[in-house]
């Protein structure tokens, strides 16, 4: 992986897609701070550790464990911050601006379309 270079004072990073990525979920889960979710299985694949399946009243999706306060039963959790599981479609060569890295995924903005969403870190290279 290339050295990370900060592009401005708010720690935004520039990157380029080294392979195509298409969203796996067309209607992703969106959570609000304080919401209660029902928990499913934790991701077991090593490169995706830190994610857990969660469901609210209308949707299910992968959620980072770091934003959850899991109850003692481990069946439900309180959401600690707003979260969207929206993924960002990228094509090889697209440039993006990365604002957050979490468990192998990057919250990014497409410099081509201005869309935002998560991209797998393995699909990009930092500039």
UniProtKB/TrEMBL annotation:
It holds the Pfam family SH3_2. Residues 72-127 form the SH3 domain. The keyword Ion transport does not apply. SMART domains: SH3. PROSITE patterns: SH3. Keywords: SH3 domain. This is SH3 domain-containing protein.
